[in-house]
Amino acid sequence: MELLQKLGIDWKLLLAQIINFTILLTVLYLVAYKPILELLEKRTKTIEKGIRDAKESEEKMQRIAALQEEKLSEAQKQVGKMLEEAKRDAESVKKEIMAHAAAESEDMLRRTRLQMVEEKEKMISEVKKEVTKFIVLATSKILEREFSTADQQRLTDAISKEIKTV
Q: How far apart are the C-alpha atoms of 11 and 4, rounded to whole Å?
């Protein structure tokens, strides 16, 4: 106690500051940190669902490829038995099936990728908005305690402009 007085530290003031800091941390945890974590958890689940859907699409593509292989081997057996005309017909059917399946699988993959990119951009945008709101709110609370009304308004405007440019 005597050492604190020699250093010029008021233990009552130090205790009050520790209590205030603890209250501030608790409020920030409840108001800012916890909701942001919940939002991130929701987004993570959405992205995981997108990844699962992409895996399912890939499995479907593999099944389609297996079906293509079956049809190709069957067509080759028939081609061996048929005349040259039947051989040409089988080749045209084979090419058509492959083109259709490839186009369909590419389209599904493209749509899945676009959906994942859109979800990611949406999540980032929402998180930026939320963080900006919390920063402005916290800054205004601090400014209310430390500065006059005119200074508060001037600093709030300047900070808002800086955040919007980021």
A: 7
